[in-house]
Amino acid sequence: MHTGLCEQFGIEYPIFAFTPSEHVAAAVSRAGGLGVLGCVRFNEAEELERTLTWLDDNTDGKPYGVDVVMPMKIPTEGTSVDLGAMVPEAHKAFVDDTLRKLGVPPLPEGEGRAGVLGWLHSIARSHVEISLSHRPVLIANALGSPPVDVIEQAHAAGVKVAALAGAAKHAMSHVANGVDIIVAQGYEAGGHTGEIASMVLTPEIVDAVGPDVPVLGAGGIGRGRQIAASLALGAQGVWMGSVWLGTEEYRNLSSNAAWETAFTRATSADTVRTRVYTGKPARLLKTKWTEAWAEEGAPQPLPMPLQNLLVADAHSRMNAHGDPDVISMPVGQIVGTMNEVRPVADVVADLVAEFEETVARLDKLRG
Amino acid sequence: MHTGLCEQFGIEYPIFAFTPSEHVAAAVSRAGGLGVLGCVRFNEAEELERTLTWLDDNTDGKPYGVDVVMPMKIPTEGTSVDLGAMVPEAHKAFVDDTLRKLGVPPLPEGEGRAGVLGWLHSIARSHVEISLSHRPVLIANALGSPPVDVIEQAHAAGVKVAALAGAAKHAMSHVANGVDIIVAQGYEAGGHTGEIASMVLTPEIVDAVGPDVPVLGAGGIGRGRQIAASLALGAQGVWMGSVWLGTEEYRNLSSNAAWETAFTRATSADTVRTRVYTGKPARLLKTKWTEAWAEEGAPQPLPMPLQNLLVADAHSRMNAHGDPDVISMPVGQIVGTMNEVRPVADVVADLVAEFEETVARLDKLRG
User: Fold this and answer.
1) Chain A interface includes B14 (CB < 8 A)
2) Where, if anywhere, are coiled coils annotated (chains A, B) (predicted)?
3) Most B CBs within 10 Å, among A199, A272, A352, to test the B interface
């Protein structure tokens, strides 16, 4: 599984692991892939600073990356209080009412959170600043091209820039802006995603950006066969997110028996693409929470970043409550094959072994 | 590209070509794949009889298959007149009004058609009867398992039975009913399709039915790289439909400059999954016709088989009118790479060549 990206980043396998957990990211990097730490959850600069220092110290000198959320169109700025005032009362009432119906109690006094500020442009910029004072080899932007000055800042520090794209025209625009690597994010992916499936999207983007721009296949990739398929489609590597939510290392971030129950029993049909998580279409586990938003009479989700402010506290309450039927979790259609909790190293070893078996099997079919 | 299915059917490549055109089917079979004639368009037994005789005479003795549309749940039977009475007047008015707004004139006197009766169970059964008096090697059912007695009838004649599935549980039920081959039809496919993308669906179905049941990957397959990806995912062959709508041989069925303009300019984002074609979710080219049905105030599509009765005449009128913006055509997301009209033999040759290149490229990545 050795492609040009392995040389470029000094990694053994072109497996890029997007994860909010520094423990998962470190374990993937140590296992020969590239762990990419999602920064959106860090509201406080000091917390990200501490976490990156921990990563520096726990990756055995292996490379890692970071992922920020920087919309091309800069959303309304302000403190969380200012933005909070823009959330309609009817929406707040719907959330309160839904949680009451679903039996989710309030958090203990003082444990709520203000919403995820990482969706704000200013905070995402501070994530880039802090990251560049550490040793990431890659900054990925989950919402497309970062602003050109951010790309230049990364390049000046010798750091490559990746951007997600759900359509060939977006990929070409990212490349024109100076982005180095395109993550072709197919319909079946967890989190923000478009409508074009990986089988079609990956080769389309590969052909559109040409041979000098490496493409990572994303969406629908949880097994070695799927890595082989993605590389067959022309990707030089894969970007995987959901599979790490089923690892032992992820428990360090969120020890959640309800989530483990939910994902081990879910089939590939148990996800839904909806705007209820952030305001933009994202694929989540289908639960009573997502179903409540799909019912007749439910309000339309708010635009980013207001929707996340609206539901952040609800997410904390649902996670704390521990009912596997009432969860808010981005995950892709591969959730159907996530059936047990395993160490990251075992997951990576299985991916590599199944890839090798698959390519050997295909080779026997040649004319 | 040689799998067990090639031995089983006496074909050179495991490329199964679903097509309503006997000219395309014959050309695919002559080129080393398996042409599969879609029978749903044949309202008259004599016409199907003549067409299969033509196929017998024009395939150089190579094998071919047929595809019928036999719902598991038998829809209300009756003549087209009886069924026509079940179509609400408001729906008829919406169709008339939409065609008027889109500038589509009526057909010349006497050229309308009664709707596609192939959706009816009795007609689909007659398609099976007529087919078995010819020499098909495969009967596929586009809507899942055929009734068990039809499967037994096919087996008694030495004919294999294939059924489409959009979920692993449906595939397992088909196998329990005696179906021999599963077509794993992913979200990105044209025509009737579910919500799970091929990258996830194919390996899931392969694992569910086990090694003794061959699986054909369907949805998102228009190029050799995609065939390699599908075989990497565990399919023993591919089921392709959309790509043949862009061939010279297809012109024999429907010489339609408007359609050729429409598909050559369409991107992968220009399809939509909707119930407006048959009453069940099917992916079509996105046009002013599909958009009219998505507008606020448009009626909900009727259940199968009523919806097709409602819109069959409109389809004929739109095709005769020749406006590339006003077309009703099932096609998958690969329409984005259908950019020219070519002979079937060239398409097959390119599929095989790109498959071979892809597998050779993958083989170099092995550890």
Assistant:
1) no
2) none
3) A199
CA distance A86 to chain B (A): 27
The answer to whether the CB atoms of B232 and A362 lie below 8 A apart is yes
Closest to B269 in 3D by CA, of A230, A268, A187, A190: A187
Residue A230: closest C-alpha in chain B: B229
Arithmetic mean of pLDDT, A355-361: 97
| Interchain CB distance below 8 Å, B365 and A359 | yes
Q: Which of B273, B267, B318 is nearest to B293 (CA)?
A: B273
Q: Measured in Å, how far apart are chain A's first and last C-alpha atoms? A: 23
Residues 127 through 186 of chain A touching chain B, CB cutoff 8 Å: 167-169, 186
Q: What is the DSSP string of B33-86?
A: SEEEEE-TT--SHHHHHHHHHHHHHHSTT--EEEEE---SSPPPP--HHHHHTT
Instruction: Report yes or no: B240 at the A interface, CB cutoff 8 Å.
Output: no
ipTM value of the model?
Answer: 0.95
What tokens were used for B3?
């799998």
In order of their start, the domains of chain A are 1-77+120-264+337-367 (3.20.20.70), 80-111+267-330 (no CATH)
CB contact under 8 A, B225 and A232: yes
- Burial class for B245, CB neighbours closer than 10 Å (0-12, 13-18, 19+): buried
pLDDT of residue B122: 80
- Kindly report, residue by residue over A163-212, the tens digit of the pLDDT: 999 999 999 999 999 999 999 999 999 999 999 999 999 999 999 999 99
B2 neighbourhood in chain A, CB within 8 Å: 365, 367
Distance from CA of B267 to the nearest CA of A (A): 9
Alpha carbon A87 to its chain centroid, in Å, reads: 25
Dihedral (CA of A231, A233, A236, A242) sign? negative
Tens of pLDDT along B179-220?
Answer: 999 999 999 999 999 999 999 999 999 999 999 999 999 999
Task: State how far the Cα of B311 lies from the Cα of B109, in Å rounded to an integer.
Answer: 18
Residue A182, pLDDT score:
98
What tens digit of pLDDT does each residue of A278-295 get? 999 999 999 999 999 999
